[in-house]
Amino acid sequence: MILLCRPLSVAFGLAIALSAAIYGYCPAAEEIKPTTGGVDFNGDPLPPGAIARMGTVRLRHNGMVNAVAFFPDGKTLASVGGDGYVRLWDADGRPLRQFRVDGYSSCLAVRPDARTLAVPTRDGCFVVLDADSGKERLRCGKAEDEAVIALAFSPDGKILASGARKGAIRLWDADSGNLMHSSDAHAFGVGGIAFSPDGKTMASASWDHTVRVWDIADRKERLRLEAFRQKPVRNKFYGGQAMCVAFAPDGKTLAVGTEGDFGEGTVRLFNAASGELVREFDGYDKERSVPSVAFSPDGRLLATGCGDTSIRLWDIASSKILHELGGNCAVLVCFSPDGKTLASGESWDRVRLWDVASGKEKPIAEGYDGRILSLVYSPDGRTLATNADDFRLWEARTGRPLRSWSAPTQGAFGGTFVCGSVRFLAGGREVVGVAKGKYLAVWEAATGRELRRYSPNEDSVEGFAVSPDGRIVAMKCADKGKTFVALWDIESNRETKRIPVGDLSGLQTDEQIAFAPDGRLLAAAVGRSIWLIDVVHGKALHECKGRTYDVTSVAFSPDGDLFASCEEDADEGSRVGDPILRLHFWDPATGDELFNIDGREGDFTSVVFSPDGRTIAAANQSGLIRLWEIATAQEILRFEPDAGGSGTIAFAPNGRTLASGHSNGTVLIWDLRPADAGKPDAAIDEKERERLWTALATDDAAAAYRAGWVLSDDPAATVAFLAKHLHPLSAHQIDRLITDLDADAFDRREAASAELARLGKQAGPALRKAAKEPASEEVRSRVQRLLDRLEMKPKDDPQRLRDLRAIGVLERIGTAAAQDVLKAMADGAAEAPLTVQAKKALERAAQRTAAAP
User: Fold this and answer.
1) Mean pLDDT, the chain, as a whole number?
2) Coil vs helix vs strand at 479
């Protein structure tokens, strides 16, 4: 059995333990089965609802990798991460199985027979899981231990040893889970445990600065080693920890990695029988810790992982470095049983495989190392541009990588802001993005060749937006603690205006600046406020005050009538410090808030309108993606990917898919057709079509959303059906109905009232005009009742809601016949809502046609 655990400093480990206790991290252990749906470009399973993936999930976690261990046959690698998952991979890094565990697991052990594996839980215990099914076989431990941070099986698999944060060492019967022995000899946490190859002795490395060697037969301490040359004098939490321990294959040598607070971070080899110091490996920054060591199976090499993010392969006989491997905060190392491969676990989400002979990383699949900072569809929807550690173009339909080019962004450590925005220019022929956090660069999409740069010559570019006509770039910049927006003319390559928008404060994200669809207005979020800027005159118009927390994203609706902001608010009814999502909707003309949607499921960081303006989507840092119908403020769809936080999202131009960028370096493409809407090619009879028509009027927005998609699946018949059921009226016809409100016949007056009520806001302008003109008492009474009805919200007016949703169905179908029906609707009364919505749908269709190749 080969294993490697991530030792945690006490302070860091305590913070994680407290977080786990408060937030729970994960439910009890359960197997997460792969979806039975499609696969990505690399042949790996996609989550439910996804139809493509950019990048790879191979050897990826959604949080730091805390432990890695090869199975005895070398064909399977296990890893456990801060995301609460145990993941099993094949030799090529393909995902095999994954199990969710109860808490933050800092270590992992695989039993020599490969049938079970052990991982800690959040209650101070650990569980033994079936390696095939993930089912819990045993649950052992003591809550008073606070947390189990080291685990190891004996070579014969009969004993399972655990080390606890409070210093306890316990031996358990691996079959029954019975406690066999306990020791509290160590004063502080036991971060590493290793059995000798013959199973007769066991070594424990502790934060109390010692390594102790135990006789398994009589359970007595046989040897005690001081991990440092001098006794540390600093406090017990940070002074001179023994981080890890490993036996050489012959059992004669112990390797100990130490913590570097005293300039003694290094690796020392001891004689396992006498405790004599045999060798010390130099070549480290000794202020750094060495939290992992591993012997090669033949005993000739030693692999070490260091807190300076390096991995070193040492020739033990000569004490020389054979290879120094790269990586990203790679501090965990583990040899395969044949010694040909080295696995490393990183603080930043991933496992890497290295060829021991050459020291080169084994290729797995193309993808990013870091989180996705920004993404955008090309105008024709065929290509997706992304930015993380470089810029890449992908085929949107399949996830196939097309090309990439480097333009390093600023570092993102310790919370430092990284602007990674990317946009298309010139109809998709050019790509613009922020390079090194200092300037904008424009590249040729076909080649990645840099064409030109825009630079405000200030401290940093925090975000940018491109005007709808592609002529202006607005850059949100920081300079000496102040924030301003610079307007840059693309054709002349010069700054034209600079608008101050307050002090630099709060969170900065890529999506805090956006143009209105007409390009005359700009919204820029600064801290807890949103500034509305007149682009033509270069001045700030309104400051829309935020709430308690910072604004993370702003977006305009396609018609420009609304803009939305995404932010955290403190709920008056919740406990202090319990932030919730609110999407706020504002009037661009006045800066006044119109309404908001209370999400209550996390700190959402990205918000975007659908191309038809009927839906708004938001994503949060835990990965949840939700979509709401704006007319009713009801949720209609959600996606819960196992891919880490969703930092950025974008609708495809045709509105049929949504792209989401994640912290594990992948992008997922989601099918917006609900999974429960049935098969797209299923036949629809007239009875079913009538039922779907009725469903469009329901107050259940999700049900109406499904009905709309099902109707869209049978375009010809649905268009003919809607042409019969949608009845736009001209202004002349509406005026005649108002005249009939004063008809002599009561039945005629009632029929006119009923028809005007059915028309709803289509008749609004004419009714308001009639209310101002002289009329009989009955006419005034009927007109006023009809006007009162118009004040109802869309969700309270089923007829109006159904007609608006039907317009959406026709726009989605998009055929010539569908556009003919929309044109007929557009010929209705000029100010009627259905007329306006039909005209907007036709305008969007024309724009999509113009953007098509």
Assistant:
1) 83
2) strand
Q: What is the pTM of this model?
A: 0.83
- 554 neighbors 530 (Cβ within 8 angstroms): yes
Least confident of 25-39, 416-430, 727-741: 25-39
Confidence category of residue 238, pLDDT binned at 50, 70, 90 = very low
In whole angstroms, what is the distance from residue 212 CA to residue 272 CA? Answer: 10
* Residue 696 near residue 802 (C-beta atoms within 8 A): yes
* Distance from the Cα of residue 814 to its chain's centroid: 32
Nearest 5°: CA angle at 196, between 193 and 197?
130
Is residue 411 very low, low, confident or very high in pLDDT (cuts 50, 70, 90)? Answer: very low
Query: What percentage of the chain exceeds 70 in pLDDT?
Result: 83
> Does position 5 have pLDDT exceeding 70, yes or no?
no
The CA distance from 164 to 125, in Å, is 9
> Which stretch of DSSP H or E encloses residue 358?
none
> Closest by alpha carbon to 426, among 402, 452, 407, 403?
452
**Mean pLDDT lowest for which of 159-173, 461-475, 825-839?**
825-839
Sheet with 351-355, strands from edge to edge, namely 330-335, 341-346, 351-355
Question: Which neighbouring-strand residues pair with 353?
Answer: 343
Looking at residue 186, its pLDDT comes to: 92
What's the sign of the alpha-carbon dihedral 559, 561, 565, 569? Answer: negative
What's the pLDDT band for 597 if we cut at 50, 70, 90?
confident
Residue 652 DSSP label: -
**Pairing status of strand 551-556 against strand 439-444:** unpaired
Contact (Cβ atoms closer than 8 angstroms) between residue 298 and residue 304:
no
Q: Residue 378 and residue 165: Cα distance in Å, rounded?
A: 52
Rg (C-alpha) for the chain, rounded Å, is 32
Place of tokens 């706020």: 584
Q: What is the CB neighbour count within 10 angstroms for residue 107? A: 28
Would you say residue 562 has pLDDT above 80? yes
Assess contact for 174 and 197: CB atoms under 8 A: no
Among residues 184, 197, 333, 359, which one has the least CA distance to residue 257?
333
Angle at 787 between CA 784 and CA 793, to 5 degrees: 145
Lowest mean pLDDT among 12-21, 109-118, 199-208, 680-689: 12-21
pLDDT tens digits for range 464-481? 899 998 889 888 887 777
Say which residues have a Cβ less than 8 Å from residue 65's Cβ, sequence separation at least 6: 6, 79, 80, 81, 82, 332, 345, 346, 347, 349, 350, 351
Give the mean pLDDT of 353-359: 95
Sort strands 95-100 and 513-515 into parallel, antiparallel or unpaired.
unpaired
Tell me which residue of 64, 66, 14, 16 sits closest to 237, measured CA to CA: 14
Best-predicted range by mean pLDDT (484-488, 796-800, 830-834): 484-488
Cα separation, 452 vs 491, in Å, equals 11
What are the C-alpha distances in Å from 143 to residues 106, 148, 164, 476? 16, 9, 10, 51
The pLDDT score that the predictor gives to residue 413 is: 29
DSSP string for residues in 13-34? HHHHHHHHHHH--S-S-EEEPP
- At 578 the pLDDT is 46
* Cα–Cα distance for residue pair 200/256, rounded to 1 Å: 19
Question: Residue 367 burial by CB count (10 A; 0-12/13-18/19+): exposed, middle or buried?
Answer: buried
Residue among 753, 731, 729, 732 nearest 741 (CA): 753
Q: Give the per-residue pLDDT at 22.
A: 26
**Which conformational region is residue 11 in: left (phi greater than 0), alpha (psi within -120 to 50 degrees), or beta?**
alpha
* CA distances to 265, 269, 290, 476 from 229, in Å: 11, 13, 16, 54
| CA 127/CA 177 separation, integer angstroms | 10
Strand partners, 476: 463, 485
Separation CA 773–CA 253 (nearest Å): 102
Q: What angle (nearest 5°) sits at the alpha carbon of residue 189, between those of residues 101 and 173?
A: 60
